[in-house]
Polyprenyl synthetase family protein (Jatrophihabitans lederbergiae), 676 residues
Amino acid sequence: MTTLTGPVPPGLLNELSRSRSGELLHHELSARWPETADSLDAIARYAMVPAGKFLRPVMALTVAEAVGGNPEDVVPAALAMEYLHVATLTHDDIIDGDTVRRGRPTVHVAYGMSEAIVTGDYLIFSAFAAITASRASGSRAVAESIAVLAEAGSDLCRGQILEAELVDDLTAGVGKYLEMARLKTGALFRAVCHIGALLGGAEETQAAALAGYGEDLGVAFQIRDDLIVFADPAGTVDKPTTSDLVNGRPTLPVLMAYEAADVARRQALSSALARRSANAPEFEEFRRALIDTGAVARCHETAGAYGQRAIQGLAGLEPSGSVDVLTEIVRWAVTTEP
Amino acid sequence: MTTLTGPVPPGLLNELSRSRSGELLHHELSARWPETADSLDAIARYAMVPAGKFLRPVMALTVAEAVGGNPEDVVPAALAMEYLHVATLTHDDIIDGDTVRRGRPTVHVAYGMSEAIVTGDYLIFSAFAAITASRASGSRAVAESIAVLAEAGSDLCRGQILEAELVDDLTAGVGKYLEMARLKTGALFRAVCHIGALLGGAEETQAAALAGYGEDLGVAFQIRDDLIVFADPAGTVDKPTTSDLVNGRPTLPVLMAYEAADVARRQALSSALARRSANAPEFEEFRRALIDTGAVARCHETAGAYGQRAIQGLAGLEPSGSVDVLTEIVRWAVTTEP
């Protein structure tokens, strides 16, 4: 079995975004949302371009290639994954009151709340429209892909509600957290891989295995996102280290620490979460507590277990460069290297 | 050619909601969103049940029957039209700050703004999922229906942005208004009829003609909605008579009056719209001005022209009870009878 202990290529995600698949996607994205776009399309372009890491669409193409399909046929559907992702970010930013994303004002700050709600809706519709543009794969694969995307979208919504229920609740438990991660992050990666496989021409069993790969990978990603703020307090990470704490979100290491803690430490964890702010010494104390109780280590183990299960989803594929990339993405997900 | 001057059956829309098609739909709606629903499904149920006039899903079944299809196969897809409609209402109510709908608190008032945004998204995903459940019609018809629904959804979003641009703008002109009505109201009726036809087994030409019927009917509906507040100030209508005025929305009669008015009357219309309120005498004065300039009459003529065009979209169908119903709906749309 492939192990997860091998080295991760440095800058893997940036490499992928610059690969041939990445280039195909960037080209199609610019064609779909040109600079000349006006009105609603201009707002959608603002939300979409410049693209982020582009991980979801690149993975859809990589999966299509791994099952023997022609990635070029899958480009519109692959971009649909990014549309849906950005749609949820646009609505999430309203819900969370976030004002900055990727160094720019969020859509509702730049254009207004009403416009941001409508733009998120528009991107959802655009995602479904883009799937139907992948006609080369046949109507049946398209209809199945639509069902997969609709289910993933519904799961994302359920995950959003579950995440809100978890705020300030340290007693929620690891199980509820993992269900939230499966819905909120796993579901879209599941759809990315399932749809990449269906439109790439995979048989049902293979497509289902790849869907499982995507879901497990997505949960590992979510855990990685929780862990990265504890990994290297001096390093640069994508989000402010105190973001989850300030929002009262009990992430996996916090829930694991709480489960294992005595009364005094539970009290300390509750206070840290209820404070809704953290200066540098407070955050360092919080970080040390999670490391000292072994919660961070146990979290790494959990991510590793999801990673191992993800790898198993690739077992039925012929060895290829695409399969190597899918394996490397799992390796990346279970470390906190940049 | 069928004329539009015949009598409209009294309470037509209520009759349709209680017809066999209506019963099928109500049954399926209760099964899909049962009383036992919890969390996100409970909010979605609150938004959906009890259903309104149910016009869109009933029309989808009626069209499927009119082209020789089995309405029972189309029930999930017909309900998808209602999901999408309610999704847009849920988001619109946030945008407009409306607190009451059908006599109950709107979703964002009852559950919170974040929950209302997520519920609207969830209903959009549920709509696409429901279309894929109409597999009896074959994958090709399903894939085409998805493309039609996605396009209609995108048009709704464009209509929403265009409507916002029209606020307070009396110089926008009738053309821009009619484009807004086509996008905001025509698009969903177009999809209702197009999808009903596709899933009912219609050929492409017939489906396109029925799509045209739906779009023209939708525009007539929007004009009817604008006119009804001027028809019978003492009568009971669904919305407050001053709603458009208070929101600074120049409806079709207002734009028509403005186009034909001299400087003094233009000034009066601008003031009425800018005031953002209207007591009974002010509204009566406004109403009289629109009637006296002939704007209300011209508006009726425009609705009638759309109605005539809608009727032409039915020309290729075999005479049947379903076609009679589709014709009666047009008659209803071009009058302001209750």
